[in-house]
Amino acid sequence: MALKSFIEVSPDSHFPIQNLPFGIFKPEPASPPRPGVAIGDYVLDLSTISVSGLFEGPFLSGSDCFLQPNLNKFLALGRPAWKEARATLQNLLSGMIIISDEAKLRDNPSLREKSLVPMSKVEMVLPIAIGDYTDFFSSMYHARNCGIMFRGPENAINPNWFQLPIAYHGRSSSIVVSGTEIIRPKGQGHPSGNSPPYFGPSRKLDFELEMAAVVGPGNELGKPVDVNEAGDHIFGLVLMNDWSARDIQAWEYVPLGPFLGKSFGTTISPWIVTLDALEPFACNSPKQDPQPLPYLAEKISKNYDISLEELRNFFCSKRVMIMPSVLRFKSNQLVKKIHVWSQEATSITCKASAPCIAKQEPESYGCLLELTWNGQKSLSLNGATRKFLEDGDEVIFSGCSKGDGYNVGFGTCSGKILPSP
Amino acid sequence: MALKSFIEVSPDSHFPIQNLPFGIFKPEPASPPRPGVAIGDYVLDLSTISVSGLFEGPFLSGSDCFLQPNLNKFLALGRPAWKEARATLQNLLSGMIIISDEAKLRDNPSLREKSLVPMSKVEMVLPIAIGDYTDFFSSMYHARNCGIMFRGPENAINPNWFQLPIAYHGRSSSIVVSGTEIIRPKGQGHPSGNSPPYFGPSRKLDFELEMAAVVGPGNELGKPVDVNEAGDHIFGLVLMNDWSARDIQAWEYVPLGPFLGKSFGTTISPWIVTLDALEPFACNSPKQDPQPLPYLAEKISKNYDISLEELRNFFCSKRVMIMPSVLRFKSNQLVKKIHVWSQEATSITCKASAPCIAKQEPESYGCLLELTWNGQKSLSLNGATRKFLEDGDEVIFSGCSKGDGYNVGFGTCSGKILPSP
Ligand SMILES: [Ca+2]
Ligand SMILES: [Ca+2]
Ligand SMILES: [Mg+2]
Ligand SMILES: [Mg+2]
Ligand code: NI
User: Which residues are involved in binding substrate (chains A, B) (predicted)?
Assistant: First the structure.
């Protein structure tokens, strides 16, 4: 029988006791931000649990990591502390177990009152202070499609792509939490070889559906992490929308890579779903092909089976919703792309070697660049058409792994386009 | 007559009262880090000056910005506070002025004893917590030389270079302070078209002489800074060594730009020389050519005349110094390259539009890639030869502007190569 919480959780909730994703929230607009876990329609305030002395394990008792405005201190403690927190919270929230020690929350009305806040009332903020942010070019199909559009079919994928993870650093200070409005950036574009460049609001504003990995303890400068231990550094995953201005990107990216076309805003979902919660959904990766150099060869090559089944794009105009759920992504395996954020000085040689898993079919395309083939065709959606995003459009991603009678879900990652000022 | 401090400052010092660069230091190895300014052979402890109530101006009285372990809070206050701090400190350190108010440090032996620490005894640490770090491709000659080596003479400089600032984000967590040893990185290289890639210690380890701009207040996401106001966001400059593994860089950088070949360590000098201290050395920039789009056109195009005259490369082997000062860079005008670090959420469209000023002559080449033309020829230095850096080599940069009877200098930016483990 599946583990159940004493808190009632609807069967289609993303946040049953099997999930317990971590985030940072404000109970009231003026409250200081604090750590919490999602449980059904509630957020459990970990600062209250911590002050009440209920984290009694060796790693967390006496620690002030849950009295911080972000999760960095908790993440720096590493996997043993993460597992201890999860076990403690599953015990506290369980309704199955009746050992007195584990009913300290359930049978304490005043503590329940203080620590359980309705999710509808809280404001979620960025869960971590992000030191560095790296965007990996993980999906072979995405790489090939972009390559054909930007460089032609002969040079679609550069040979290095098959030999090592290709990535660039993004701007960590422009990462925002789900719900933040995105202002259409102005920048320079260059439509064709002989025309002069222009400056103005981006004409090819796009989204990119991605999964981002939040890296915990990190490593010392000059001490690389072995590829077989890289997983231990990943605390969990969030959904990410890597908003992209294709006209700016196409003109600026040679030879130093994407820059302003990517750094005007990047949205993540607020709840970090831990690898421990995703473990029941682990599955084999495709074989690494070609055989990589030994330093990149994984002994166990693991993916997680997450359906991005609730991905929806709402194209709105003047606040009138034109259509509901229109695009459905079913990718049987993570990960379209893996992002790694490091909080500490790091020089991990290879943080995310997960090969691309995006499917080849157009239905699994993760951005308008691919869906409209760089604006050459229109996407028809319940009567409206789009080549790229228009002002007022809102894009909402969702993702979920379905277990036996429960979900481990990510909630949503959303953002709405505001016009350039 | 030039302004003088009551503290004796030797005429060739980089740190007279005209300079007063800001840094973060520890008076003793176990002390908490705190802000200071360099004056002659001393560091003035700003936390002590602040606690003593000597910052009496409207922006700084009552502020705890000098009781922090980095300069971020001070930098966030913006240019009016920076000017107030400089004026207050010049008054306190002056020996010319005998108004009682301005002798509060000079005539207070106990305060002098507490607040003035011999520079030889302190440990300098990183002056700022760096949120984002951007490397601009500013020097046309460097761009052309790299382009010829990596892509051939036909495609040496991409057309976008002449139209907008080309840049990429670096890894901010691998920026270290002068004196930190640099471990030779391991990575993947690919010597020629038909050979398989290899993994191992970099075979083409290089330095890059750069100037870095430290950005203060920043801007809100989506609210660009006007190019004519960009200077107000720059607090000051430091020397930077953008250590580069050319074999790793050449293989990985298409199409997303430099990544691991640049992110194993980047060294900066510890003292931030303010733009206010450099103002006497301001000079006209070369005319922007071609005429940029209006959003990039500067009304006043200013450079600073800084001689990188003390740049020295010490190639050492087994701690035996093989040669003293060997390379001399005389560039009459800043800036080989401008780096911009932002501490806050930023989406400045153009933070550094300073055109390149590096000279064309080989004597002004700022890296071994250019000096040895990617290892095709050797550099002969007092009997030793180098194509790229060897383990044990130490590279030391220095830079200085010479005024009438005083210098405004940067001190040194140094690092020594340790072997791969
Ligand atoms: Ca992306
Ligand atoms: Ca550089
Ligand atoms: Mg991205
Ligand atoms: Mg650099
Ligand atoms: Ni890049």
Answer: 137, 151, 249, 253
Examine the pLDDT at B344 and tell me if it is beyond 70: no
Structure tokens, B255: 């199409």
- Return the beta strands (E) in B27-151 as ranges: 34-39, 42-45, 116-118, 123-125, 132-136
Residues with CB under 5 A from ligand 4 (ion): B 135, 242
CA distance A287 to chain B (A): 20
Chain B: give the shortest CA distance to residue A319, in Å.
Answer: 21
Q: What does pLDDT average to over chain B? A: 81
| CA B76 vs CA A33, A392, B16, B57, B134: distances in Å | 22, 33, 26, 17, 19
Which residues of B contribute to the annotated binding site for Mg(2+)?
242, 262, 266
Q: Is the model more confident about B48 or about B171? A: B48
Tokens found for residue A340: 């790694």
**Phi, psi torsion values for B79, nearest 5 degrees:** -60, -40
Superfamily for domain range B134-418: Fumarylacetoacetase-like, C-terminal domain (3.90.850.10)
CA distance A14 to A406: 8
Question: DSSP secondary-structure letter at B225?
Answer: P
Burial of A145 by CB count in 10 Å (0-12 exposed, 13-18 middle, 19+ buried)?
Answer: buried
ipTM of the shown complex: 0.87
Give the pLDDT confidence of A279-313 residue by residue, as tens digits.
Answer: 998 877 767 778 888 888 878 777 777 776 445 45
Residues of A with a known catalytic role: 142
**What's the CATH code, domain A22-125?**
2.30.30.230
Domain edges within chain B: 22-125, 134-418
Closest among A218, A216, A355 to A296, alpha carbons compared: A355
Centroid of chain to Cα B33: 20
Q: Which residues of chain B does A186 touch, with a Cβ-Cβ cutoff of 8 Å?
A: 224, 295, 349
A173:B256 CB<8 A: no
Least confident of A57-66, A111-120, A321-330, B6-15: A321-330
Cross-strand bridge partners of residue B136: B167
| 8 Å CB contact of B259 and A168 | yes
Q: Give strand pairing partners of A395.
A: A313, A415
The radius of gyration computed from the CA coordinates of chain B, to the nearest angstrom, equals 22
CA A208 to ligand 3 center in whole angstroms? 8
